[in-house]
């Protein structure tokens, strides 16, 4: 599978994934000083909200990828709908999706 229908945006879903990765890294380093000695030190409520957004962004990026595959002819409608329905929440309770879809262990992403 290659996608590419929305290639004018250079696989923008990948950039959304990168943004989520960078945000997650910044969250993890919230109370760590940078090379200039600056500590972001955001409030825990803000960190909790941002953590939820990392999950949302990863989910959105995955759906964007499969929309691209649909419009590129790499997915048929049935396949597309099955995949996005799974992405939208049919994960087992033990699934790591809530933290990192790369580490999904429930099998939803095995065929994607």
List keywords for this structure.
112 residues; mainly alpha; 3 helices
Structure description:
- The protein has one domain (7-103).
- It has three helices and no strands.
- The chain has 112 residues and is an all-alpha fold.
- It has helices spanning 12-28, 44-72, 77-87.
- Helix 1 runs antiparallel to helix 2 (44-72) and helix 2 packs antiparallel against helix 3.
Q: Structurally, how many domains make up the residues?
A: 1
Q: What oligomeric arrangement do these chains adopt? A: single chain
Fraction of helical residues: 40-55%
Order of SSEs: HHH
Class from helix and strand fractions? mainly alpha
Spatial shape: elongated
Structural topology:
Layout: H1 12-28, H2 44-72, H3 77-87
Helix pairs in contact: 1-2, 2-3
Write a concise synopsis of the structure shown.
With 112 residues, the chain is mainly alpha-helical. The protein has helices spanning 12-28, 44-72, 77-87.
């Amino acid at each position: 599978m290659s996608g590419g229908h929305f290639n004018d945006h250079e696989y923008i879903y990948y950039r959304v994934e990168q943004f989520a990765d960078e945000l997650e890294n910044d969250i993890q380093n919230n109370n760590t000083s940078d090379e200039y000695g600056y500590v972001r030190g955001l409030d825990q409520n803000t960190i909790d909200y941002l953590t939820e957004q990392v999950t949302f962004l990863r989910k959105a990026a995955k759906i964007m990828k499969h929309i691209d595959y649909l419009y590129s002819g790499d997915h048929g409608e049935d396949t597309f709908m099955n995949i996005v329905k799974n992405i939208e929440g049919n994960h087992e309770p033990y699934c790591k999706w809530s933290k990192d879809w790369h580490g999904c262990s429930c099998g939803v992403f095995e065929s994607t």
